[in-house]
Design brief:
By secondary structure, this protein is α+β, with helices and mostly antiparallel strands. It has three domains: 2-231, 4-Layer Sandwich (Phosphatase 2c, domain 1); 238-336, Phosphorylase Kinase, domain 1 (2-Layer Sandwich); 341-527, Transferase(Phosphotransferase) domain 1 (Transferase(Phosphotransferase), domain 1, Orthogonal Bundle), CATH 1.10.510.10. Helix content is 35%, strand content 20%. It is built from 17 helices and 22 strands. The chain has helices spanning 22-27, 44-59, 68-91, 177-180, 185-195, 201-211, 233-240, 297-312, 343-349, 355-374, 406-409, 429-432, 439-455, 486-495, 507-513, 529-532, 534-559, and strands spanning 2-4, 13-18, 30-37, 99-107, 110-116, 120-125, 128-131, 137-139, 145-147, 160-165, 171-175, 218-224, 254-255, 258-266, 270-277, 282-289, 333-336, 341-342, 377-378, 387-389, 395-397, 404-405. Helix 2 packs antiparallel against helix 3 (68-91) and helix 13 runs antiparallel to helix 14 (486-495). The protein is globular. 35% of the residues are buried.
């Protein structure tokens, strides 16, 4: 990395490379960034410095469950608004604090590029140099150009985004216009190849552009890929087996300060116990992996991920995973103890639940889902068995075994991606179609639960599998329970639409639509008269029968 003021009295360029340590390097990657304060703006230097320093600080503070794209866009959008507001407040101008920005994030085996303005990012792959960004400039006359996009120009910002795989040997070059305008791509490529991995290459490039007559600030940042993570499978698997599986636990045993009170559940994959935290004198639930899976790295990784998820979500409607205060001898994690029944049991006990009761439960599940979605997590297995209702009526989502995490999904591992895809009857159709899951996939499951609570049945006339998605037809809830308002039925139909794009954008829209009529939803379902008004139906049928008998009698009289 190298930067010079050049022939100008002040350097409005700012650049930096940030390589974090340990966990942050895995979850967030490394960052290379270059910014160039716009010529003519009162605080161009301050703007470029703010872009670089603030981004690095804020990006590494974003939740590690967020994808790189989401993290960067949120940070850059907030930074852009601050620059725009600061320019107006301090200088009374929309263009007082304006800067270009080109940003490279290297995470796992991928490169993420974010760009606005006329700084540039190149990649040298072998002996081929490729420009990865495009300049945001407007030509004004034969020899004058203006920035069409930059940080701080407007309260809203349109940032170019690109993601591409990287290979060992790739080299990324970030340049300000004071360099590339005075150094052709051909010459840049030749310098990069000739100097190979010389650590002073950035300085050589800047000085060559200066010698070629550059009259602007000059900055160059070079990032070389010398190795990629997750190539040593043995090291990855070793991390998974750092803790042994616990032995069979029986009543009265004490493990790491937890006294086993009784077994709550035993399944093929996990063992669940009620335990007493002796130090805090509170009941907790201990979840341990089954000994059957001690040689299954996919299962172990998923089990570790469940605790990771639960520690990051803070919602009264999501099961809380307790922080581990004491060293662990074995692989397990501890959660709060919820004394209550599953939603499945509640539905059995309340076969004719009122709309008010259903709304209350669905709204609480929706609040829990929003806690996942804010962190870019998709639960993927919302069903009545994974919902608990405590004696006070508080509803909580449990079981994180199928959760998809955007930020974690970007990290390459030796494991195959065969994450669980929910449960039959509650799984969104897009899973069967091989399409990516979104937050609307969870909304589908929520809609199925609401439909089932109101009708006791499932919303489609057949199981939704890859073979029969085109044949499946929604069964209007009013055909099953006539008292259900038509506007509620329309909300249910929209929530469980086979096409994700047709569903509600957010779970809050769904809960709102269950609370009052939505004029935007058309009432186009047909409800047979027999179900709408049984008494009237019988009267009509009786009249028709009487009329038929009279006609038959007249026919007989004519013949005699």
């Amino acid at each position: 990395m190298y930067s010079l003021a050049g022939l100008k009295p002040r350097n409005d360029d700012t650049c930096a490379v940030k390589i974090p340590k340990d966990q942050l390097l895995q979850s967030k990657g490394l960052v290379a960034i270059i910014a160039d304060g716009m010529s003519g703006s009162e605080a161009g230097q301050q703007a470029s410095q703010a872009c670089v320093k603030s981004f690095i600080t804020d990006y590494f503070s974003t939740p590690d469950s967020w994808s790189t794209k989401t993290s960067c866009h949120k940070v850059l959008a907030a930074l852009n608004r601050w620059l725009h507001a600061q320019g107006q407040r301090e200088y009374g101008s929309d263009r007082a604090m304006v800067s270009t920005l080109s940003l490279l994030v290297l995470k796992s085996t991928s490169a993420y590029l974010f760009h606005v303005g006329d700084t540039r990012i190149y990649r040298l792959h072998g002996k081929e140099l490729e420009l990865l960004t495009r300049d945001h400039r407007i030509q004004a006359g034969s020899d004058k150009t203006y920035l069409s996009r930059a940080m701080g120009i407007d309260i809203n910002i349109d940032i170019d985004y690109r993601m591409l795989p990287v290979e060992v040997g790739d080299r990324f070059i970030l340049l300000s216009d004071g360099v590339y305008e005075f150094l052709s791509d051909k010459d840049l490529c030749a310098l990069m190849i000739d100097t190979n991995d010389d650590p002073s290459i950035a300085k050589v490039i800047v000085e060559q552009a200066l010698a070629n007559g550059s009259d602007d600030n000059l900055s160059c940042v070079i990032v070389s890929i010398v190795s990629l993570p997750n190539q040593a499978e043995a090291e990855f698997y070793q991390r998974l087996i750092e803790l042994p599986f616990p032995p069979p636990l029986i009543q009265g045993m004490v493990l790491d300060g937890y006294k086993i009170l009784r077994q709550l559940h035993s399944a093929k994959r996990t063992e669940v116990y009620l335990a007493l935290d002796i130090e805090l004198n509170r009941e907790v639930v201990m979840k341990a992996p089954s000994i059957n899976y001690q040689d299954d790295p996919q299962f172990i990784n998923q089990f570790l991920q469940e605790e990771w998820i639960g520690r990051r979500i803070n919602s009264p409607h999501v099961l809380k995973v307790c922080a581990q205060q004491r060293p662990r001898q074995c692989l397990y994690y501890v959660t709060e103890h919820i004394a209550g029944d599953s939603l499945r049991q509640w539905m059995t006990d309340h076969p004719q639940a009122s709309l008010t009761q259903v709304r209350s439960i669905i709204e609480q599940i929706a609040q829990g889902l929003r806690a996942f979605h804010r962190l870019e997590m998709i639960h993927q297995d919302i069903k009545p068995e994974n919902i608990i209702i405590d004696p006070h009526g508080t509803v909580k989502i449990i079981d994180f075994g199928s959760v998809k995490i955007a930020g974690v999904a970007e990290i390459s591992t030796p494991l195959a991606d065969d994450n669980l895809l929910g449960t039959v009857n509650y799984t969104a159709p897009e899973y069967h179609q091989g399409l990516p899951a979104t937050h609307r996939s969870d909304l589908f499951s929520l809609g199925v639960i609401a439909y089932e609570m109101l009708t006791g049945q499932l919303p489609y006339d057949r199981h939704l599998t890859a073979r029969n998605l085109n044949l499946a037809r929604y069964r209007p809830a009013r055909q099953i329970v006539v008292s259900i308002p038509s506007w509620v039925d329309r909300a249910l139909a929209k929530a469980v639409a086979i096409n994700p794009a047709v569903r509600f954008e957010d779970s809050s829209e769904f809960t709102f639509a269950l609370s009052q009529p939505n004029p935007g939803l058309e009432d186009n379902e047909f409800i047979p008269l027999l179900q709408r008004d049984p008494l009237k139906s019988y009267k009509v049928i009786s009249f028709i029968l009487v009329l038929a008998n009279l006609m038959l009698l007249l026919l007989l009289l004519r013949r005699t």
